[in-house]
Amino acid sequence: MSNRILIIDDEKLIRESLTHLLTGAGHRVEVASRVDDAKVQIAKEVYDLILIDLRLPDGSGIDLMRHIHDQVDYAPLCIMMTAYGSVDTAVEAMKYGAYDYINKPFKSKEILLIVKLALETGKLKREVRDIIKEQSKANDIISVDPMMERVMAMVRKVAGNRDVSVLIQGESGTGKELVAKAIHSLSERSSQPFVSINCASIPGNLLESELFGYEKGAFTDAKSRKLGLLEKGNGGTVFLDEIGDMEAPLQAKLLRVLEESKFRRLGSVEDVCIDVRFLSATNQSLEKLIEENKFREDLYYRIKVINIVVPPLRERRLDIELLLKYYFDHFNRKFKKNVKEISEGALELLQNYQWRGNVRELKNLVERIMILEDSEIITEEHLPLEVFSANRDRNRFGLALPWEYDFRQGVDFNELVKSFSSYLIEEAMKVAGGNKAKTARLLNMDRGTLRYQIKKLGVVNGNDDESDDD
Ligand SMILES: Nc1ncnc2c1ncn2[C@@H]1O[C@H](COP(=O)(O)OP(=O)(O)OP(=O)(O)O)[C@@H](O)[C@H]1O
Ligand SMILES: [Mg+2]
Asked: Which atom of ligand 1 is nearest to the CA of 177?
């Protein structure tokens, strides 16, 4: 494909000789002799390269170039031409973004070489810009942690395939929906709709009509035909959020859609064919639901041709600092505040915190702090109490505060009781200086029970002298 070049010079001879030279090299050339005319042309056309004379009858070439840089969003490369050859103006031209400059009179060879290099540079710049644009589609996902980089690599791979179904698993607030959107926007379906439906928040029969749509008269309230999400998403991506909550009859119907790419609107006898990619997400264990006969195994294999597991925030601690800064910035703009940094102590507390609610919890925490505080530096005193209490001895006993447990994920009752009992005994033992009788008193239990518990829990520590009774 030939390149489009615009030459702006008030000297007819120069315009003609350059046109001749560059057309001869296979480029498409247009000319202008005044700043005003050039601006009109630049607004209308897309040029790969613009050659600008330094002095034009109605203005300076440098001003025109600045105009191009400020106003033209694809920012074409500019080469400044000057007959007045002072290094100063050339330097100035470069400072304002000229790619290069040429002194008049010029040699044909020289011009051709500079133009060639400029065009190559321009092409490279455009490629880089496209890559960044491509990345920024997924850029809502903020992450530096290698754990998450692996997830993003999967996202890019599955996005490259048009149809494959993906099941996105992960705790609440880890960013499953963001991952789904990233897959859609990086895929060739990106210009088509992304429709999403939350299977947990809509009752079963309503969910069915939302998904499949209905014909007029299909039920009492069906006054006219309504298209369902499957049809609305045709050509694009359908995201089934919280799929573990879908009821059994609907699971069977969905299975057919996945297998045959067709379905019927409620009250219709005709099949509608659709072309969609299905993404599903859940924070429940589908495997467990299958065991309990609450989720169809055949559907499970259909929706999880590829499985992406988004790791919880506490397993990608490198992301914590980045996300904090990202949300400081976000809420600075939203609330017109000026938080600049976070103290080391506060950061450490947050890095050791469990984040049961993952990124959503972090975002809410930053929002809460920034609504309440006007300080430029976030320190420990700005942090809510739960961050402190959850930090204490957490690593040793793996204990969280009762309200931090996510019971939908299931908790191990015996393990937790064991950890908690060990914690109480070890702490009391420390206070009692290892004296078991005193420890028993502090815990309001008799010595026999304490001895039994120590043995059962495997608590080491303390004074083994049985007779020790202070
Ligand atoms: N990596 C990330 N970068 C920036 N923001 C994120 C990231 N991950 C999650 N978020 C933000 O956290 C919030 C929760 O994300 P999202 O809704 O995608 O989570 P989810 O896994 O779908 O949660 P749930 O299971 O509760 O539906 C959103 O506000 C989202 O923008
Ligand atoms: Mg979600």
From this structure: 18
